[in-house]
């Protein structure tokens, strides 16, 4: 396994643009969170906005960058034909995918932590200026820590989900289309359906809606799922995608 | 074969040949054709499916009955026409002059202690009290009115959608408002005055086909107080709470043949199943002073199921179109076909233009039947399910259907331009989705406040979705005019111009890059 990890790390390190993608992930998370925080304000008697959700709003955009990174890790090999060399050198195919998953997850966890921490800190100042109570923005209180840690895990799970889908689909454009479609279309679909029961069912199935429940700190009773249960929905999607991708990788010719 | 070789042309042939070449390239990849067809199919199926899940009924006591069709105004739009009217018949020409000495009312606010009605004194911004000439007491019939409003001063309005501002300010016993409305044939003229001697004309209204005998008198009405809260699973919930407004009139003076007795009518009052009236208005008269209290509004309806609702499914199809469009150009780079393409058509700008044109036309041709079917079949299903779909003119329907197909084509061409500029499929697909789909999803479903959502839909190519809005925004009707409620910040065609502008910019950059760099 160590050779696998070493090989995958070398490949990822030398992939063009990885540094830029990681930088974009941090910058987008912080910039979008700060921009979202700048446009909301809160009256002294309270408001309907969830401070944690707003100060981590950038995750909704930077998850696309995470998806790109995870998709490229595998489809780039198919695009250049490198995959044949990889699988010749390391015939244990599940091991290859596992090594890729570990490297990508590790990278996302590290960069994600930087991005989430920076955006929580940057947005905090802005939100305090917009009338939010300092008590709701305590960065070491339970719900806020859960939102921040959960967001980092969310990004890592998005990476696993994307990697699994890309392994199954093999083409970069199709893979990224499928991933972003599954992420961003569920919220739109939910609003299209008028029936309340169906809405809540779709919400529970949606990787983005359910997964981002982990960011909620207000009005938890109104959510169809509890924060951690929501994140586990995304975990189920990611596991299914990785298993499916791994199975196809073993069964098919490269 | 020999014929083709016998007539070689300089520069690789005309634009028509380039178009033909690109069309052959497109149709020869089975996956692209299938994906385009799938885009159309998915959009239609999702649209029809969402419409069939959308049931509505109105309760009449213990039983559920079909909702009544919306009241329609003279212009064909759905309208609210609910007010208290103290009126007389007027035969032929004439008019009415009154002095409005006060306008008061009450507003129900969200309950502070549950179960306890929280009613405060005040008038909502568009509460109305004034004088009116109306074709009949039928809801939706033609009218013109001069009125005082809660916060928008004196106005002259007619036939629901027309609104002219008079002098701003309020009304009190110390500074009363004199209002006058006269009829001369089909032309109605509104005046106002501060003292009853110097009169200013506010405006005129032409009500074609007004009958010989009309109803003339004083009215009051007050639209519900609007509060908007966020829904649990995204979206927003707009709640409207009871309000009423009372106008006090004296110095009532009728001109012309209005000899009948005063009649009171609570036009359009809601009747409960047991026959009682829900929040009725009232009127009183003593010593020449009239007090009229009304609940409701006289305005175009902006809330309700819109006919474009099934077209929300378009987003799903758009992603498929984007992927195909990007691959249409990046596949050339990946397989090295671009070198052959550029050898055959050395004028690179024209070659790219041909590619964009072919893709745009193909997408439009596939999308048009899809949007037309989704709109008509989806709308039919919505109506069959008991939804009182707001009526819109045929021209608007055509604009929505054709406009959405055009948006598909624009999204495709934009994605293609991005593919030509970036040359990498992942980067191009992500950028295209981030520019077109994500802003719309975030603006219409997320926690973003309305103002931020509106800016997103002004600045990004997602502004093009404005073309599907069928119910316009009215300055004289207070509503929740936010993307989340289906109202876009730009007008339909201005919205569509935004993605077109992006295309011009990105295609221009792509041509520059294609010319300067090796392929």
From TrEMBL, chain A:
It comes from the Bacteria. The chain crosses the membrane at residues 12-34, 54-75, 96-123, 143-166, 173-194, 228-249. Coiled coil: none annotated. Keywords: Membrane, Transmembrane, Transmembrane helix. This is ABC transporter permease subunit.
UniProtKB/TrEMBL annotation, chain B:
Keywords: Membrane, Transmembrane, Transmembrane helix. The chain crosses the membrane at residues 29-49, 311-331, 352-378, 398-419, 426-448, 493-512. GO terms for molecular function: ABC-type transporter activity. The keyword Membrane applies. One of its GO terms (cellular component) is plasma membrane. The keyword Transmembrane applies. This is ABC transporter permease subunit. It comes from Herbidospora solisilvae.
